[in-house]
Amino acid sequence: xxxxxxxxxxxxxxxxxxxxxxxxxxxxxxxxxxxxxxxxxxxxxxxxxxxxxxxxxxxxxxxxxxxxxxxxxxxxxxxxxxxxxxxxxxxxxxxxxxxxxxxxxxxxxxxxxxxxxxxxxxxxxxxxxxxxxxxxxxxxxxxxxxxxxxxxxxxxxxxxxxxxxxxxxxxxxxxxxxxxxxxxxxxxxxxxxxxxxxxxxxxxxxxxxxxxxxxxxxxxxxxxxxxxxxxxxxxxxxxxxxxxxxxxxxxxxxxxxxxxxxxxxxxxxxxxxxxxxxxxxxxxxxxxxxxxxxxxxxxxxxxxxxxxxxx
Length: 311
Hints:
One of its GO terms (cellular component) is chloroplast. The chain has 311 residues and is of the alpha/beta class.
């Protein structure tokens, strides 16, 4: 299906890269690559991992009370039969398009990366896991080939950030959104979309939804968004899930709660005690891993309630 989505008026790159060559952001088991012949112009990844959990309920702090996440008492295998990855170029914006093949639920998601860009393994691993749950995920290059690098001096960060024109990024996202709507509709996929973002991308989620005058998006999820423009929050007309840690200096909880109130009914702020910045897609400790799994469960339930049930 992904090949048909990308084959109309947009160029496709078909270079095969190793995927999941280490344990992923959520300590997933390494996947197995099943490359197709080069002439087909795509490759399919078979993902399978085992998730161990003890029977319990974990209460997460929210601004509305507790959100309960059920964890099974037995070892279960979460299997994604096939995920198709295609590299596309949409009006000069490079992107990965990940589509679930066997369990596709017909819903599209736009995933906005952190400052390390769409090629970063942590973002890519998370996108694969979302696609494994049945979604069609587009991960664009927000920085037009100039992401922030861990090797650059921190003293250069603000200068680099100023060089990332937010108006250009907004225009790119608008173009990508219209492409998703047109191409997914032509392929028989729902026109309703969701948007997810981390850090820098999490900050853009509110911008995207506030500017969505055509009502393309049904919901958004912002993971520890940075520099969110609270002034436009009142223009958001769909529920937004905000996930953050209470020790994150880059994402102030009071700001998130203020934005949530401006958006209104249906939105939530979910706070993980003791967690810092990036803990969901870049866990550093066993405690981060545990809460990252719970955050993913909350994310999956939110998407199901606000995208699948609503379509």
